[in-house]
Write a structure and sequence with these properties.
By secondary structure, this protein is an alpha+beta fold. The chain has a five-stranded mixed β-barrel. Helix 1 packs across helix 6 and helix 3 packs across helix 5. The chain is globular. The protein starts with a strand and ends in a 7-residue tail after the last strand. This is HipA-like kinase domain-containing protein. InterPro entries: HipA_2. It comes from Streptomyces ureilyticus.
Length: 255
């Protein structure tokens, strides 16, 4: 399971994200970017972050380390910003934290070159989880210590907002023509050959086991957290085998 820590100090909001994540210190002396159950799509965004972050890590992609962060709403009483104070008050309990990559810079395609191999792996992964938020307008990529890191996976696996449509999502194509890494000629065929065989039932069971049970309660149509974990794994397992055949790169990338 993900390491659990407790927030001890709220430092500042990070207003680049629409869900208003914040920078916090925790009782393990770590500094984390914290995402809140009281923001946006709530706990489903955090579930997506866990599934995609932990899956990406197991596939050899670089993502900041994840923890769960316990939050006492009293921590927001001294916050002068009313919007932030309300967010903290509504997010008591278990939230999500990501290692803060100090001095990381946002990815700039004009300043940082990416190999076709690495670009292919990231595009293939984003197609697998149907990430609609990695465009050149908003790459959600950081460069830290000279290497590319993936962040912000809340806008993935859109089928978990309508579980009845999840089976149909398996065959849904992925439009990568606007992807931040499309200009680098992503080698998607090579990525699929390397990564698809790794996405097994066992791996996905391991990944979904990382989702805190508290975020899986009271989901309509599911009688247990384990049943919901299986529902998260099933479309990913099915998509992994053939999604490379349905990645639309336009004229820039390469299948």
């Amino acid at each position: 399971m993900l390491k659990e820590v407790t927030a001890t100090r709220y430092i500042t909001p990070l207003r680049e994200g629409g869900s208003l994540p914040g920078l916090v210190e925790a009782d393990d002396l770590g500094t984390y970017v914290m995402k809140f159950t009281g923001a946006g799509q709530g706990r489903k965004t955090l579930v997506a972050e866990v599934v995609c972050g932990e899956l990406a890590r197991r596939l050899g992609l670089r993502v900041p380390g994840l923890v769960t962060i316990g939050l006492d709403p009293v921590i927001g009483l001294g916050e002068p910003d009313e919007e932030v104070q309300e967010l903290l008050k509504s997010s008591g309990g278990l939230n999500l934290g990501m290692d803060f990559l100090s001095r990381a810079i946002g990815f700039d395609a004009l300043a940082h070159r990416v190999s076709p191999e690495e670009a292919g792996k990231i595009v293939w992964f984003d197609a697998l989880v149907n990430n609609v938020d990695r465009s050149w307008r908003n790459p959600n990529l950081l460069v830290w210590q000279g290497e590319l890191w993936l962040i912000d996976h809340g806008a993935t696996m859109i089928w978990h907002h309508n579980w009845r449509g999840a089976p149909a999502s398996v065959a849904r194509p992925y439009d990568a023509s606007d992807h931040a890494l499309a200009p680098f000629g992503p080698d998607i065929a090579s990525a699929a050959a390397q990564l698809a065989p790794l996405v097994t039932e066992e791996l996905l069971a391991e990944v979904t086991a990382e989702i805190p049970g508290a975020w899986l309660t009271d989901e309509p149509g599911f009688d247990s957290a384990d049943a919901l974990r299986h529902a998260y794994a099933e479309p990913l397992l099915a998509r992994a085998a053939t999604i490379h055949e349905r990645i639309e790169t336009g004229e820039v990338g390469a299948k």
